[in-house]
Design a protein that fits this description.
The chain is of the alpha/beta class. About 15% of the residues lie in helices and about 25% in strands. The strands form five sheets. It has a four-stranded mixed β-sheet with strand order 2-6-8-7. Strands 5-12-11 form a three-stranded antiparallel β-sheet, with no helix packed on it.
Length: about 220
């Protein structure tokens, strides 16, 4: 276990009391080693300024909405193993698929995980998403998260590009990163939205792929 993993584990009993959900409260195909979340878990390393930015106005509406969210996993999406296509870049792993027709510009799911500062980030994580870039705050879904952690990049999957995107949102006074179906667009390319059974794909951005390329090109004996 990495130092970041240990820090994340120790935080579970501090800022937010959290028990592992029962199997029937988690989505099908959910990995046992990953804690399923229905709300973000905040690091104890987050300072007053960080929390003021992340949660400027927590309201009763937030409490009520999150209680409703916690009832069951999302009915809009399904986690599914990638087995049928050997050309799929995530073959043998998992992807996130639409469980029903998703209209253009509609909400899909929030990206949940461990909300951290630069001091307790995991440089090896492949599930870390920037939340507040100017403060270096991110959301890491390596060891805890929700269905959104299974969304794949569109490259090698969809020639026409992504069908969903990340958006900054506010939920009951709390800042989050959420996933939405792409809008229809001027060309009308996205007018059908995402069909039931279709894989949901976003763009991880060029920075992510440059980092991955640097990792693969690094010599095995390199300490850099």
């Amino acid at each position: 276990m990495t130092n970041s993993s240990k820090r994340q584990s120790s935080l579970v009993g501090n800022r937010t009391r959290m028990s592992r959900p029962s199997a029937d409260a988690r989505p099908k195909a959910w990995p046992n080693e990953v804690t399923y979340l229905k709300r973000p878990l905040y690091s104890n390393a987050l300072g007053f300024e960080d929390l003021a930015t992340l949660r400027p106005s927590i309201t009763l509406a937030r409490t009520c909405q999150e209680e409703a969210e916690a009832v069951r996993p999302s009915t809009l999406v399904r986690i599914r193993a990638i087995r049928s296509s050997t050309s799929h870049p995530a073959v043998g792993q998992y992807g996130l698929f639409a469980a029903q027709q998703l209209p253009p510009n509609s909400f899909i799911i929030h990206y949940l995980g461990f909300v951290h500062t630069p001091s307790d980030s995991d440089s090896e994580s492949k599930y870390d998403l920037s939340l507040v870039r100017e403060l270096g705050i991110g959301i890491d879904a390596t060891h805890m998260g929700n269905e959104a952690r299974f969304i794949n990049d569109y490259r090698g999957i969809r020639e026409e590009g992504p069908n969903a995107e990340f958006r900054d949102t506010m939920v009951g006074g709390e800042r989050r990163m959420s996933v939405y179906v792409l809008p229809e667009g001027k060309s009308g390319k996205g007018r059908r939205g995402i069909r039931k059974g279709e894989e949901i794909c976003v763009s991880y951005g060029k920075g992510f792929w440059k980092g991955r390329l640097a990792e693969t090109e690094k010599p095995e004996n390199s300490d850099v």
